[in-house]
Amino acid sequence: MLDLLWLVPAFPIFSFLAQVLAGSRLSAREQSLVGVGSVGASAALSLAIGTSFVAAPPADYHYSQVMWNWITIGKFSPSIGFHLDALSICMMVVVTVVGFLIHLYSVGYMSGDEGFSRFFAYMNLFVASMLTLVLADNLLLLYLGWEGVGLCSFLLIGFWYKEPENVKAATKAFLITRIGDTSMVIGLFLLFNSLGTLQIQDLIVHASQQWAIGSTAPALAAALLLGGAVGKSAQIPLQTWLPDAMAGPTPVSALIHAATMVTAGVYLIARMNALFILAPVVQSAVAIIGLVTLLLAGFSALTQTDIKRVLAYSTISQIGYMFLALGVGAWSAAIFHFVTHAFFKALLFLAAGSIILASGHEQNMFKLGGVRKQLPVTFWTFLIGAASLAALPLVTDGFYSKDMILWDVWSSPKGGVWLWVGGIIGAFLTSLYTFRMVFLTCFGAPMTPLTSHPKKSIRIPLITLAILSIIVGFIELPHNFGNVHLFSDFLELALPSFASSGANQHGELLLEFIAGLVCLAGIPICYLLYLKSPDYSDKLARSPLGSGLHDLWFSGWGFDLVYDKLIVMPFIWITDFNKADFMDSFYGFIATITQVFHRIFSVTQTGKLRQYVLGITFGAILILGILACL
Amino acid sequence: MTLIWLITIPLFAGIASWISARRSDLWPRWISLSALCLEMFIILFFWVDHTSQIASGKSSLWITSVNLPWIPQLGVGFRLSIDGLSLLMVALTAFLGIAAVLCSWTEIKDRVGFFHFNLMSCLAGIIGVFLAVDLFLFYFFWEVMLVPMYFLIGIWGHENRIYASVKFFIFTQAGGLLMLMAILSLYFVHGQITGAYTFNYFDLLGTSLPLWTSALLMLGFFAAFAVKLPAVPFHTWLPDAHTEAPTAGSVILAGLLLKTGAYGLIRFVLPLFPEAAHLVAPAVMLMGVIGIIYGALLAFAQTDLKRLVAYTSVSHLGFVLLGVFAFNEFALQGAVVQMICHGISTGALFMLVGMLQERMGTRDLTLMGGLWTSIPRISGVALFFGLASLGLPGLGNFVGEFLVLLGVYQVNPWMTVPAAFGLVLAVIYSLRMVGKAFYGSADEKRGIPDIWPREAWLMTVMILMILWLGLFPQTVLNTAQPALTAIRDRCGSAAHVTQNVIGGPGIGAYVQTSNDAKVMQGSLPNK
Predict the structure, then answer these.
(1) Contacts of B19 (CB under 8 A, 6+ apart)
(2) Chain A contacts in chain B segment 444-473 (CB below 8 A)
């Protein structure tokens, strides 16, 4: 079974090639069959491989498969090869399953679009790149998947290329993530130069042998890799591309936010955990970046009017939680939150897409409403996703994974009270912006008529994801409540287990209670502010402080403005100023000088004998004079 | 004997094209095309035939040689020799030659015979440059490729062609003249020391020169190659020449002529003047880094699509310069892969610009936009080569750039960091090009035809080549490896020489023994 591993990324690649080469000759039905079927086959195969891995674990709990040698120069020999362990199985299954549901959904969502085949080609390539990323056995191949994901985000965000705004957003996404990637690639140079390999497993062994905890080299390497992770996972300061990435079709947003792309950074840090453990400073930086990001993005999400932008900021914020967990060494908790987030965020986007489709592409929440009555399936699934995002206690995925992170943050030697408090504030913000979104779109009177009802290909993914958003949480329950650790036990085959400090062991129940309360508190507040008496929220927004904060948060804390003024404008100004290349003027100058002399001397060629005689005479006198003087 | 054929086939085909043009315009096209296909076939056959010999490497570095007397009194011989590096370059020449003939199939309607004569003799000159192992002969071929290119730009070029062709000629000629002086000086110095006056590359390799003499002579060679490459600040002829040349001219300029500069650095500057090369290496690497960034900044600002592509060459060739002067195996291999991939991908981009110009009558980016709707296939191909140009992993250019940067990092990490920043700038100019020309909305659906079968086949082959180089580069790496290893060994490791140079009294005392020259010669097959 395991030797079929290569087929998991190969299926979507074949489908991509088929769409590119023969897409125009296939009917829409065949196109969707190939596009969805390939990812479905990958998903089925991933599940089978996962099952067989669990049933009959290979030696040392990992399995490697080398397809061919990529580049061999001396000791540098990365291959096109895959490495399967608990972590990559987990990522692979989530990517393919969620990817499959999103593909299925797209058949309905994108039907009739003139670029139908192109859409599936890009989506397939996206999934294939992400699978390459998570399965790669060396960092160079991982980088190939990493860049492939960036490329596909460009292609898909700019899918409706006729709008210049979309193209701009697409370029922004590729460019900003490329800045992070460049930092990462320098990290690869450093790692290879110091440790002589890019094979991930060898790197981890060599790093632990050659580097002491807290020395400079691992800190530098980890920081450079962190640069890449921050870019792809949209963390501060490279988070600005993600809200604009909403320009793509909604299934694309679902794919970017849930299964692929933004979780790549989380995966990279988890995969290279040994390196980060050797660099405690950088690991703390991961936690702080995560915390700051989750708070800033939470505030921004509170003020958005576009439903997809709320979800975008919520993704940034939730990835922030994962970074926070990684930063305190709660590796399994971070990946658990990734899994639950993949389900409920995909669900939220797909449900939002269903609303957008039904309302004739209205995305402003203040112009929507009444979804509850008119689109019951969409409403209930949306509500389940929202509850999970807000971590509604006991019944949702999101509660268990977020609670696990918060508890680990509290009890980790690298964590502490302040990080926990930040996390709780973030949880409160999450609850507020989530229920604000729910109340505005689903309740009240419908402002925009909702016409079309979701087709079957849209309903199936919604319902499946809704079920997953509830039941998956139960594979990992807290110590004092069920004490189930299926997920972390499995993951710890590949990741270090969480080491709590032991000091803060008490009061887990109290902390869970607070977390639950914070979430529940959001519901009445939002009900009051947005449904019962909207004047309050208007007044709040109109007060001087309120409006200032509102503008700041609405613009994503002004990062775009600052980057625009500090980097983009000067760049454009300088390049435009030097468009004609000032260096060329030097050569132009030489040419001009030559021409000047040419003119001067050609004046003397008059053809008049008298003047020549005069010239010769004066010249002779001059030379004789000089000679005489000497 | 094969080597002589490699040069004479295009030369005679060129003459035949010129003569046959009286009958019909189709004759020169078909003659040139078949000659180049034959050439390609010979090279591929030769390559496959000698794969094992190349791979074994050490025993016989040079696969085959020709050594005929030419002017024996002056020590000038008709000496050709081929190793893995030249083999790759000649194969690239034949391939891009075919591409150049095909892309001018409908573009060139005026004086078709003379056009093909110039094209083919230019190619013959380029192949000669890649094969010559006699400095006099090398200089001869260097000039042979220059003059036809001058005509190609000057006669079949665009609006500002005369200015561009004269500029091209003067720049190249000035560099070439300095190289000629250096060649002659080397000839005399070597003659005075050993008593044997010869232009033979292998004999000159062992010349022991005082460091400063060596540095001076090296600069002569470097001037010619740096102008050709082009290295900033000697690059300003390039955008004009590339922009004004007909498509085939741009393809050959970017794909091949620039490579002769890089080839010259690897083949002559490093082995002939190893210690001097080390002395200037930091400065030259800095030139490379500046080239990468400066070229990319200029590319971003252009609105003429062809000029934009031309400036990307400056940026990409900066990687080559950087890699060559890092003197390690990764960087040298990377430089060679980058040369090949840049030849193909930039050649393809120029051909795409040519297609657009042929269809729309303009190269102005601001007049384009929304082309994807009208010509999706051409747009898709352009997107592919735009991605190759920005170094997307999986495509050949990435392998080149990555290996260069990996190698440079081991020598000088501080050069790597700004050079890697060039990867970000490459995204900016490439995506700007795609975004402005092919994305966006068209006011009306332009009634222009999408890709023609002739173009489609050519582009398919080029795409496959870039993918092959990106995913299976090992064949190319293995072919170039023995040659590069010999050159690198001769140069010694950077650290070793730096020590000698910094060692003060050791300056000039560091002289390569003639043993190294023997290594370079390998066991030269006698023919």
Answers:
(1) B113
(2) 471-473
What pLDDT score was predicted for residue B141?
Answer: 93
Distance CA A318, CA A324 (A): 10
Report the distance separating Cα A252 and Cα A507, nearest Å.
Answer: 42
B146 and B176 Cβ atoms separated by less than 8 Å: yes
Residue-range domain boundaries for chain B: 1-51+60-272, 281-493
User: pLDDT at residue B523 above 50?
Assistant: no
Residue type, A127: V
The tens digit of pLDDT for each residue in A205-252 reads 888 888 888 888 889 999 999 999 998 988 888 888 888 888 888 888
pLDDT at A292: 92
The amino acid sitting at B367 is L
Return d(Cα A390, Cα B12) in angstroms, integer: 78
pLDDT at A189: 92
In order of A379, B67, B133, B141, the CA distances from B185 in angstroms are 86, 23, 17, 19
More confident residue, B512 or A145: A145
A458's tokens: 């849209």
Cβ(A66)–Cβ(A3) below 8 Å: no
Rg over CA atoms, chain B: 22
A277-319: pLDDT as tens digits: 888 899 899 999 999 999 999 888 888 888 888 888 999 999 9
Give the span between the Cα atoms of A305 and A366, in whole angstroms: 7
Confidence grade of residue B518 (pLDDT, cut at 50, 70, 90): very low
Closest-CA residue to A526 (of A441, A440, A424): A440
pLDDT at residue A475, as a whole number: 79
Two tokens, residue B512: 């390569």
Phi, psi of B207, deg, nearest 5 = -60, 125
* B48 alpha carbon, distance to own chain's centre: 23
- Interface touch B473/A151, C-beta < 8 Å: no
What is the CA angle A138-A178-A264, rounded to 5? 50
In eight-state DSSP terms, residue B304 is B
Contact call for residues A519 and A389 (beta carbons, < 8 A): no
Side chain identity, residue B158: H
Q: Give residue A420's identity as a one-letter amino acid code.
A: W
Residue A247 token pair: 């320009």
Q: How far is B147 from chain A (nearest CA, A)?
A: 21
pLDDT tens per residue, range A456-496: 778 888 888 888 888 887 877 777 776 777 777 787 777 88
For the packed helices B26-49 and B112-131, what is the interaxial angle rounded to 10 degrees? 20
End-to-end CA gap in chain A: 101
Contacts of B380 in chain A (CB under 8 A): 20
Chain-centroid distance, C-alpha A455:
29
pLDDT band at B499 (very low <50, low <70, confident <90, very high): very low
Q: How far is A294 from chain B (nearest CA, A)?
A: 27
Amino acid at B451: I
Q: At A93, which helix (H) or strand (E)?
A: helix A86-109
SS3 A463: helix
pLDDT tens sequence across B378-435: 889 999 999 999 989 999 999 999 999 999 998 888 889 999 988 899 999 999 888 8
Closest by Cβ to A171, choosing from B236, B394, B435: B435
B298 touches chain A (CB under 8 A): yes
Q: Is A345 left (phi over 0), alpha (psi -120 to 50) or beta?
A: alpha
Q: Do the bridges between strand A79-84 and strand A63-69 make them parallel or antiparallel, or are there none, so unpaired?
A: antiparallel
How far apart are the C-alpha atoms of B243 and B256, rounded to whole Å? 16
Residues B418, B423, B426, B430: what is their CA dihedral angle, to the nearest 10 degrees?
-170
| ipTM of the prediction | 0.89
- Distance from the B167 Cα atom to the nearest Cα atom in chain A, whole angstroms: 10
B236 and chain A: CB distance < 8 Å anywhere? yes
Q: Cβ B471–A192 below 8 Å, yes or no?
A: no
